[in-house]
Amino acid sequence: MQVLPAAFRIASRARGARAFHPRGKVWHASWSPGEVPALRGSPLLDGPRPALLRVSHAIGLPPTVPDIIGWAVRVVDAHGPGRHQDLLLASSGTGQLTRHLLLPAQDLGDTPFSTLLPYQVAGAGTHVIVARAEDPATVAYAAAVGPQPHVLPRFTVQVGGFEGPTLATVIPGALADQQLGESLRYDPWNTGPELEPAGWPNRIRRPTYAASQEGRGARC
């Protein structure tokens, strides 16, 4: 069990960045809640909140080459001061099987994203969390992470797949300061009791995040 975290710690130190998704951009955003009956009463649904949206390459290939695209959102202070809600998703498919698979992509606007692994949702069973751009117009990923800032589309976040209820709409705004973007420490275990990573794959995954963050010296 210690081999995998050690490998992530070494990779992060060698890269001077995250072991995966080493480079990306962060946008200030707004979290506009939807309606998920199982999560009624959750602070994630009690009104709009400020958020931080990060888009990144998993491997760090040139933007013109298809890569796994990372999509991570932080709902700031969702569970109290300094207690954020983080959701980390990656480019995947839309089907019952493919929503659990990493799939390379290039265009941000028509790419589905998934947590891949399930969450326990307030006693309502285990479900993946997915997201997709509301506007079907293609937004080139090369443009989204290139040297010039671009306006991103809105994204709909849903519980249990693309046929499931809407958890929120994420509305990107201005591009954040690069230093802030590089310092952020997104973590699936930044969450509340009503929405928790579930199952043994998540238990194996958890120490790799801590090791990667330790390797690059992340603090927040």
Give a quick summary of the entry:
This protein has 220 residues and is of the alpha+beta class. The protein has helices spanning 3-15, 141-145, 178-183, 200-216; strands spanning 24-33, 49-57, 69-75, 85-91, 113-114, 119-121, 126-127, 129-133, 155-159, 166-175, 195-197.
Describe it for me?
The chain is α+β, with helices and mostly antiparallel strands and about 220 residues long. The chain contains four helices and eleven strands; from the N terminus they run αββββββββαββαβα. It has an eight-stranded antiparallel beta barrel with strand order 1-2-3-4-5-8-9-10. Strands 7-6-11 form a three-stranded antiparallel β-sheet, with no helix packed on it. Helix 1 (about 5-15) packs parallel to helix 4. The two termini are about 25 Å apart. Mean pLDDT is about 80; it is low at about 1-20.
Main attributes?
three-stranded antiparallel sheet, alpha+beta, disordered N terminus, 220 residues, globular, eight-stranded antiparallel beta barrel, 4 helices
List the helices and strands and how they pair.
Blueprint: H1 3-15, E1 24-33, E2 49-57, E3 69-75, E4 85-91, E5 113-114, E6 119-121, E7 126-127, E8 129-133, H2 141-145, E9 155-159, E10 166-175, H3 178-183, E11 195-197, H4 200-216
Antiparallel strand pairs: 1-2, 1-10, 2-3, 3-4, 4-5, 5-8, 6-7, 6-11, 8-9, 9-10
- Main-sheet strand order equals 1-2-3-4-5-8-9-10
Average pLDDT for all residues: 81
Net shape: globular
Structural class: alpha+beta
What is the helix fraction of residues, given as a range?
10-25%
